[in-house]
C-alpha cells in the first residue's frame, strides 16, 4: 500500500477539510515526482508515450492505497488512529528526505537552489494550511 494514499483517505474520512489540505499538498509534491519518473524513461527509450504511461502508473499508487485503506481500516478510524497514521507518514517522508534527497543535493553544491526549494516548499505549505 502507498502511505500517501492511506494518509489522505484516513484524514479525509475523519475531517474532510484536513483531507483536502493533505490532498493538495500531495498533489503539488507529485508534479516533480512524475517528472523525475518520466524524464529518465524518455531519455532511455525516446518514447514519450512510454514515459507518460510509466509516470501515470506510478501516480496510481496513491488512489489505490486510499481504496485499500478504506477497505481495511474503515471500521477502525478514530482520532488516535488518524494521529498515528499521519505521524508514521510524516516520519517516512522526513526519513526519505534526510537519507536519500539531502545527500544528493550536497553532491551538486547548489546551495542556493536548495535554500530556494526549502523556502518555496515552506511557503506553499503555509498557504495551504492557512488559506484552505
> Structural class of the helix and strand makeup?
mainly alpha
> Which value, in Å, is the CA radius of gyration?
17 Å
Number of helices: 6
**Shape, principal axes of CA atoms:** globular
Low-confidence stretches: none
| Residues in helices, as a percent range | over 70%
Task: List the quaternary state of the chains.
Answer: single chain
Mean pLDDT: 82
User: What share of the residues does DSSP label as strand, in percent?
Assistant: under 5%
N-to-C CA distance: 28 Å
Polypeptide structure, described:
The protein contains 6 helices and no strands. With 132 residues, it is mainly α. The chain has a domain at 3-93. Helix 1 runs antiparallel to helix 2 (16-45), helix 1 (3-14) crosses helix 4 and helix 1 (3-14) packs antiparallel against helix 5. The longest helix is centred in the first third of the chain and has 30 residues, at 16-45. The mean pLDDT is 82.
Amino acid at each position: 500500500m502507498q502511505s500517501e494514499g492511506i494518509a489522505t483517505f484516513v484524514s479525509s474520512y475523519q475531517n474532510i477539510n484536513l483531507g483536502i489540505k493533505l490532498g493538495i499538498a500531495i498533489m503539488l509534491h507529485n508534479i516533480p515526482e512524475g517528472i523525475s519518473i518520466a524524464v529518465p524513461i524518455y531519455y532511455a527509450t525516446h518514447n514519450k508515450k512510454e514515459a507518460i504511461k510509466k509516470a501515470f502508473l506510478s501516480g496510481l499508487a496513491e488512489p489505490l492505497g486510499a481504496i485499500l485503506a478504506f477497505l481495511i481500516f474503515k471500521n477502525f478510524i478514530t482520532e488516535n488512529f488518524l494521529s498515528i497514521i499521519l505521524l508514521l507518514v510524516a516520519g517516512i517522508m522526513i526519513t526519505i528526505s534526510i537519507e536519500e534527497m539531502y545527500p544528493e543535493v550536497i553532491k551538486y553544491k547548489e546551495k542556493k537552489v536548495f535554500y530556494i526549494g526549502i523556502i518555496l516548499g515552506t511557503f506553499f505549505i503555509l498557504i495551504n494550511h492557512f488559506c484552505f
